[in-house]
Amino acid sequence: MPPSLESRTLRKLNIRILPFVFFLYVISFLDRINIGFAALTMNRELAITSQQFGLIAGIFFLSYSAFEVPSNLLLHKIGARVWIARILLTWGFFASLTGFVHNVHQLLAVRFLLGVAEAGYFPGMLLYLTYWFPQKQQARAISILLTGIPVTSILGAPLSGLILDHIHWLGFGSWRWLLILEGVPAILCGFLAYFLLPGLPAQAKFLAPEEKNWLVAELAAEERKKLAAQTISVAQVFFNPRVLHLSAAIFFLNVGMYTMSFWLPQIIKSLSTGGSNSHIGILVMIPHLAGAIAMLLVARSSDRRLERRYHAAIPVLCGACALLLLNSAGSLAASVLLLCVVAPGLYSFYGPFYSMPASLLTGYSSAAGLAFVASVGNLGGFVGPYAVGLLNQKTGNMRLGLTVVGLSMLVSASLMLLFPKSAKSHTSS
């Protein structure tokens, strides 16, 4: 039996769209979190305290969050191909520039500018996927995109460890080369995105006419269904109770996600006495590998059942409990094993979660809503790393900070369990 029109179309989307956006997201997340590996030698050279490092890691998210909504509205107006290429080029420049700083204040300034340059990239990619994938395929598509987070660490952690141990060219510190070299791919990908990233389905040359017509009709039917259920303006998005509920849930989740992203190399180093940076990179890779596998399996189950709340909440509950137990782990092996529960709990959240705002909103409201949810969520990327750094400096260890992060993850899971089942609009006129 020949494949159906739907399956043929989706297969082409999976081949043409997903691999490229996945690769672009790997590049973006690498430039966002490699400061965590650079810290293994940078902090000593620049005399950076734990509290200062938490601020350096988190300040990116203040500027990133501030500019996300206008950036996503511009993407919806100008087009994904041009705007995403612009984001890649400017953030690649600032990512590489980070390797040339000489003090804490310069580092804070460049990290802030990196956030401005990259603002809107993640919600822009989410919005872009809604242009191509019907609702019942979105959790899987989003999860493939976001699998870039653990894959970045799976590939980037050993690579970063090797750079720190072996590259000292021209008398530059290895942490400088780490930041410079890992910023270059974003610049190159900016040019690739402009020429290779498809625009909208109606102009897709890789789809046959009947495939294009089916996809356009399917997406239009979903838009009409959402408009019939509710009409939310761009201004109303920021006060909609369901949007605010989702924003709070992702905020508390990202407190945990970015704490692990930025602090995990230092957590592993504190447990692995005498290990090289390359050895630390391999150990950091293991929990992220478990997270990548879990992320895809949970998203597939979520799409199959068209259920989002429990698929997002239950893994986070398990991860939070594992993180709270981490303080009592008696060995490096036990700690890595617990982290192999924490990481899947965090990563599995994203696919089911980010398919929820798109099911509520349409058009410019969808662009604004996705950006608003992501921007509030990314503030957790400031709060988590900075709080852990501050508490680490005050107490001399990470126990209290990790407890706070574990409790934050429990709040996120609770908010997801409390999210209303009804699809009715809660927006007041």
Overview of this structure, please?
The protein is built from 19 helices and no strands. The chain is mainly alpha-helical. The protein has a single domain (17-201, 221-417), classed as Growth Hormone, Chain: A (Up-down Bundle).
Oligomeric state of the chains present here: single chain
In the CATH hierarchy, the third-tier topology is known as: Growth Hormone, Chain: A
Number of helices: 19
Number of domains: 1
Q: What is the structural class? A: mainly alpha
Helix content: over 70%
CATH superfamily: MFS general substrate transporter like domains
Mean pLDDT: 87
Sequence stretches where pLDDT stays below 50 over 5 or more residues: 423-429
Chart the SSEs and their pairings.
Elements: H1 5-16, H2 18-33, H3 35-45, H4 50-78, H5 80-97, H6 104-118, H7 121-130, H8 138-146, H9 148-166, H10 174-181, H11 184-196, H12 209-229, H13 234-237, H14 241-271, H15 277-305, H16 309-326, H17 332-360, H18 363-395, H19 399-417
